[in-house]
Amino acid sequence: MKELARGIYIESDYPGVTLGALILTHGTILIDAPLRAEDARAWKAVLLGVGGNFNRLLVNLDSHTDRTLGARAMECTIIAHQRTAQIFRGRPSVFKGQNAESGSEWETQNETVGTRWAVPDITFTQKVSLYWGPPDVVLEHHPGPTPGSIWVIIPEAKIVFVGDAVLPNQPPFLASAEIPAWVEALDVLSKKFRDYSIISGRSGPVAFEFVRTQQRHLKNILRGLEKLAKRNAPAEETEHLVAALLADLTFPRKMTDQFTHRYHHGLYQYYAHHYRPSDLVEME
């Protein structure tokens, strides 16, 4: 666990995503949840040890399985964007592990199958402020990685948690994405949060240069997909984009299979949804 500022922590050692926690006067604000129930118990114990209490609020930065599947084990009220809650209402009550080989972290944890989802208790549409501190905390809607993606902003500490908006040297999750909105969100991040510490949901603190790198990579993806769309190529042809996109990243060789799966799955889903819905129907 690392302390970014007084009472503001991140944890990257559990499988899943980088977690955040704000130990405030009126309780603990949690940012995303560990994948596994045993890790949730450990995370809660760690936070109690540094001054947290049993009054907790969990923020879901988006609907991705890696950051939401363990929410029930956190045993607290959950807040998320309205679009995220809508996605939960369309899911079965128990996670069955569909979409294997999507390049997600949950696929490396067999015990996650059979976990019961926890639906958000509180939702909002654009922006909400939490006064549990000081410092004050702002939740703000910035779609892109998913329709319901949000950021957690702590203006006093100059820290912003951006979830999957910035993923240094790993493929973006595209299956539920909207790339133009994502590029626009990164414009906001680069203009309004330039003097902030940016916390990625997969990599922890990231240098500001990765915001522009992420934006450029997304534009490259969109150009490749649009070229396929212009000649009405089937969704299967998105696999030809994978090698060049992987070559644009620097990552450990052991991640090659997982990242290849992530691109195969995400590119197919994005292209089918946006350009060839008939391919999506045939796949289903």
Mean pLDDT score, rounded? 93
Extended strand count: 13
Low-confidence residue ranges: none
Spatial shape: globular
Q: What structural category arises from helix and sheet content? A: alpha/beta
CATH class: Alpha Beta
* Alpha carbon gap, first and last residue: 42 Å
Number of domains: 1
Percent in helix: 25-40%
Provide the gyration radius in Å.
18 Å
Q: What's the total helix number?
A: 8
Biggest beta-sheet profile: 7 strands, mixed
What pattern of helices and strands is seen along the backbone? Answer: EEEEHEHEHEEEEEHEEHHHH
CATH architecture: 4-Layer Sandwich
Which fold name corresponds to the CATH topology? Metallo-beta-lactamase, Chain A
Order of strands, main sheet, comes to 1-2-3-4-5-6-7
Strand-residue fraction? 15-25%
CATH fourth-tier homologous superfamily = Ribonuclease Z/Hydroxyacylglutathione hydrolase-like
Helix and strand arrangement:
Elements: E1 2-5, E2 8-11, E3 19-24, E4 27-31, H1 37-49, E5 56-59, H2 65-68, E6 77-81, H3 82-89, E7 122-124, E8 127-130, E9 137-141, E10 150-154, E11 159-163, H4 179-192, E12 197-200, E13 204-206, H5 209-230, H6 242-247, H7 256-274, H8 277-283
Parallel strand pairs: 4-5, 5-6, 6-7, 11-12
Antiparallel strand pairs: 1-2, 2-3, 3-4, 8-9, 9-10, 10-11, 12-13
